[in-house]
Each structure stands twice: as C-alpha cells, then as structure tokens.
Design brief:
mainly alpha, elongated
Length: about 280
C-alpha cells in the first residue's frame, strides 16, 4: 500500500484537508468495507434476534409441561440477573468496567473466532468480521425484538386465535409486523452502533475505515490531522444513516389504505374483535 504525499502544509486543519485529498482512494475503500460490515452484520443479527427474541418472548404458563417450565424459568433467571446488575449499579461504574474490560474481551473474542475457524472455513478477514458483528448484534436484537413482541397487547393474539388463525399465522401476520415497527428505532440504533464498532475489527486485519486511517497516519506521522479526517467521515456516515432510517421509519408509520385480503386478517380487524 503506497501513501501518496505532496508538499505538507502548515496548520492542523490544512493538513487534514491535504491528507484527505491525497488519500481519497484509501479512505473510500475503508468506507465501503465499514458499510459492508455494518449492513450485513445488522441484517444477519436482526434475523438472529427475530429467532431468539421470539423464543425469549414465550411466557411461562400453568399448562406447560414441567420440563418446559423449568427451561423457561432458567432463561428468565438469566434475564433477571442481567436487569438486576445493570439497574443496580451507577452508570459511571458501568462505563469504566465496560471500557476497561469489554474492549479487551471483544478484541480477544474476535481473535479466537477468526484464528480458530480460519483453518476450517478458509475465510477472509471481512467474512470473519461480518460473522463477529452478526453474533454480537444478534444478542442485542433478541432483547429488542422480545421487548417489541411483549409490547403488543396479548388480546390481539387471543382475538386472532378466535378467528381461527394458528400460532404461526398470528405471530407472522399480526404480532411480528407490529413488533418490528415498534422496535425499528432501536434496530436502527444498532446499525449506527455497528458503523462505529466495526473499527474494533482491525485486530484481525479487516481493512475498514479505522484501519486505513491508522495506516495513513503511521505513514505520514500525522496522527491528529488524520484522525480528524476519520472522525468527520464517521460523523458523515452516521448522520446519513440516521437520516435514511428516519425516512424509512416515517414511511413505515404512514397509514396504509388497502382492501381486505383472503389470506390474512388485518391488524385493525383483530383490534375490533378484541374490543
């Protein structure tokens, strides 16, 4: 990789502009890889979250078999422990622990997954990066989807069942679409987080925006101006993503006028039956 360099100007911001102009191809490649990681990781993580969140939203009922109730209680116990810890400790303490411990843990986990499975799958750093982001995002998405499902009035489920719909039809046609719409701001926030957190994958050699910025800074020995460029590029990416997500959310919340379908029962009809 060759860093093109012309006459270095004076002044921090002048140097930042000079660095950007002389290394546009490198920054552009890093941006493309960063977006690839964020988009693929978020979409795959959403699929994982839909599966796990649906399982996590299952309630413990008296009619459940004893083994089923025990399994559900164990899963709910882990969630209760998580809520107890994070609600019962100050945010500043959490921030210090997360910054000091999880930063090291995420890097170690990325190295273990990459180097442990590379001989088996012969995968590239980018493929490994997408896998790692998907696994991490899936854990957060599961909680987001679970909360979205539980926010739906259970009377809609009962009304749909009274109309002859199966549990699968009720979940796919009535509950899940509303849960995704209610959870969309949080889902979009995970996408924004993934744009920034993809920088951690430089530890396994993923050539994303932070990796490219570090390479340019090391070659030119101009660290502050180079990372000013990186910060502005990250800010542009997250701002554009936020605007796009706001547009999509607005479209999702627009009222739709469509005729009745023989294949499914509209949510409005289920609500009317419940009322």
């Amino acid at each position: 990789m060759m860093i093109v360099a012309s006459a270095k100007p004076d002044g921090m911001f002048a140097q930042a502009w000079w660095i950007f102009q002389d290394n546009i191809p490198l920054f552009w490649y890093g941006i493309k890889i960063t977006l690839l990681l964020a988009v693929c990781g978020t979409l795959i993580g959403l699929l994982i979250g839909l599966l796990l969140g649906g399982i996590r939203a299952v309630r413990i009922e008296e009619r459940d078999a004893p083994v089923s109730r025990i399994i559900k209680k164990i899963l709910h116990g882990f969630v209760g422990l998580y809520v107890w810890i994070f609600r019962g400790t100050p945010m500043m303490v959490q921030a210090l622990i997360i910054y000091s411990v999880l930063k090291f843990w995420i890097s170690i986990k990325a190295l273990i997954i990459y180097h442990g499975l590379r001989p088996v799958l012969n995968w590239s750093p980018v493929t490994a990066g997408i896998t790692i982001i998907s696994i991490n995002t899936g854990a957060y998405m599961a909680e987001i989807i679970r909360a979205g499902i539980q926010s739906i009035d259970k009377g809609q489920n009962e009304a749909a069942r009274s109309l002859g719909m199966t549990s699968t039809q009720t979940m796919m046609s009535i509950i899940l679409p509303q849960a995704i719409r209610n959870s969309f701001p949080s889902i979009g926030n995970e996408f924004i987080v993934n744009i920034k957190d993809s920088s951690m994958l430089n530890v396994i050699g993923v050539i994303e925006l932070y990796f490219q910025s570090s390479s340019v800074a090391g070659s030119l020995m101009l660290y502050v101006p180079t990372f000013i460029v990186a910060a502005i590029l990250y800010l542009l990416l997250t701002t554009l993503a936020t605007q796009l997500l706001s547009f999509v959310e607005g479209r999702m919340n627009m009222p739709r006028s469509s005729g009745p379908s023989s294949q499914s029962v509209p949510v409005e009809r289920v609500s009317e039956v419940y009322e």
